[in-house]
């Protein structure tokens, strides 16, 4: 799910290197949302997320981690 975390970072203007772990990218994303005092992040097509698959479960976990900071 590093690709999703990287996409969040890209949208926020955060520079990401290939050496960064997903946790580092997610921390940077959460920090940026927190600093911006964001209270809402809209995610289109979330209804397509299938938490019964490995990728879907990982995506759901990432979104949960981010939502805990943004709310």
What features would you describe in this structure?
The protein is mainly alpha-helical. It has one domain (2-70). Helices cover 59% and strands 0% of the residues. It has three helices and no strands. Helix 2 runs parallel beside helix 3. The longest helix has 17 residues, at 54-70. It is globular. The two termini are 21 Å apart. 8% of the residues are buried.
Essential attributes:
about 70 residues; about 0% strand; mainly alpha
Note the topology:
Layout: H1 2-12, H2 22-35, H3 54-70
Helix pairs in contact: 1-2, 2-3
User: Helix count?
Assistant: 3
Instruction: Give the biggest sheet.
Output: none
Radius of gyration computed on alpha carbons = 12 Å
Tell me the series of helices and strands, N- to C-terminal.
Answer: HHH
Provide the domain count. Answer: 1
Question: pLDDT under 50 segments (min length 5)?
Answer: none
How would you describe the shape? globular
- How many angstroms does the end-to-end distance come to? 21 Å
Q: What proportion strand? A: under 5%
Share of helix, binned: 55-70%
Output mean pLDDT: 89
Q: Structural class of the helices, strands and pairings?
A: mainly alpha
Number of strands: 0
């Amino acid at each position: 799910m590093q690709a999703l975390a990287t996409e969040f970072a890209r949208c926020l203007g955060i520079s990401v290197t290939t050496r960064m772990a997903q946790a580092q990218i997610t921390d940077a994303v959460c920090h940026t949302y927190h600093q911006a005092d964001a209270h809402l992040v809209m995610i289109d097509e979330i209804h397509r997320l299938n938490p019964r698959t490995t990728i879907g479960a990982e995506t759901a976990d990432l979104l949960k981690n981010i939502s805990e900071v943004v709310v």
